[in-house]
Every structure is written in C-alpha cells, then in structure tokens.
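A reminder from the course coordinator: this example appears on the midterm review sheet, so study it carefully.

Given structure:
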C-alpha cells in the first residue's frame, strides 16, 4: 500500500461521525465547568456501578442488581455527553480524524497512561502497607483489581472530557462534515 494514499472512509465511519457530532446535548457540555460536572458525575456513577456489581457478585446481594440497572441509564447519558463534548475523539476510527484530532487523541492517551501509572503505584503502595500492617488483603485483591481495570478503561474518556475545548459559536464552525466531496468513497 502506498504511504501517500488517503484512508477510505466507510459508511460506518460516516454514521459514527454524524452521531458523535450531534449538537442536541450541547448545553450539557458547553462550558468547561459543565464538562467538569459531567465528568465528575460519570466518575461517581461509575463508582456506584462498580460497587453495585461487586456487591451483586461477591456479596450475593439482590438489591445490588437493581442498583446497577438504576445507574446504567444516567451513566450512558453522561458517557454520551462526554463523547459529544470531545466530538467522538476516542470513539471514531483514526481514519475519520484529522491531524489535529489524532494529535489530541495521542495527548489524551499519553496523559491517561501517566495518571494510571501513579494510580497503580498508589494502589500497590496501599496494598503493601495494608499487608505489612497485618490486614487480610486476600478478600480485597479482586475488588481492587477490578476497580483499577475499570478506571484504566475509562481514564482516557474522563481526561478527554476534562481537556476538551469550548465549542465555537455556530457562525465560526468549520464545515467539517464527512461529505462525499471531502473524503474518498467506500470501497
């Protein structure tokens, strides 16, 4: 394959681009303060979902299953708001992103890796200190590892939401839709 060829944008890429760039929920994330509130809400809902899931699996608590169902819809709305604020930065394929978006995606991934490194170090130190203090940590290993896994999975989304810039006024927005004239056709 030639290196100067542009990647082919598929119908799926066009649909996902259109979904991620819808502006109906724009007031939810129009300002940095609102985006921070959405990200914090998402983190709280994620923690509640993790706790309910762990209670339902490890604690055999029936109420926790209903707690998961109660958290799921607001969690999905918050996820959609963050994806809307970032214009699908983490959800779109690289071929549907321009150079600036790809660079931003790389910055988010690098920062998420850095933050996770420190979180993993903190979890390791806390586990070691608890072990040396005589605390029985065998029962905590799975919940802590599962929680760290979920945080690792969602950290890029949270950081992208926090790092997103304010939207431009409508008259200043570039015509960046994936139109037939701008991109190669599906093969």
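Designed residues:
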């Amino acid at each position: 394959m030639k290196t100067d060829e542009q990647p082919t944008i598929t119908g799926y890429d066009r649909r996902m681009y259109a979904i991620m760039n819808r502006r109906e929920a724009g007031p939810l994330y129009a300002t940095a303060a609102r985006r921070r509130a959405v990200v914090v809400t998402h983190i709280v809902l994620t923690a509640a979902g993790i706790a309910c899931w762990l209670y339902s699996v490890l604690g055999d608590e029936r109420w926790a299953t209903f707690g998961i169902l109660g958290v799921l819809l607001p969690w999905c709305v918050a996820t959609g708001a963050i994806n809307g604020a970032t214009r699908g930065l983490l959800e779109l394929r690289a071929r549907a992103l321009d150079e600036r978006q790809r660079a931003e995606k790389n910055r988010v991934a690098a920062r998420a890796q850095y933050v996770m490194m420190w979180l993993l170090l903190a979890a390791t130190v806390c586990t070691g200190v608890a072990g040396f203090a005589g605390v029985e940590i065998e029962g905590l290993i799975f919940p802590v590892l599962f929680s760290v896994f979920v945080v690792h999975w969602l950290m890029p989304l949270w950081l992208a939401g926090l790092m997103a810039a304010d939207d431009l006024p409508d008259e200043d927005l570039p015509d960046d839709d994936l139109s037939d004239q701008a991109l190669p056709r599906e093969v």
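The longest helix spans residues 99-132. The helical segments are 11-20, 32-58, 62-85, 99-132, 141-163.
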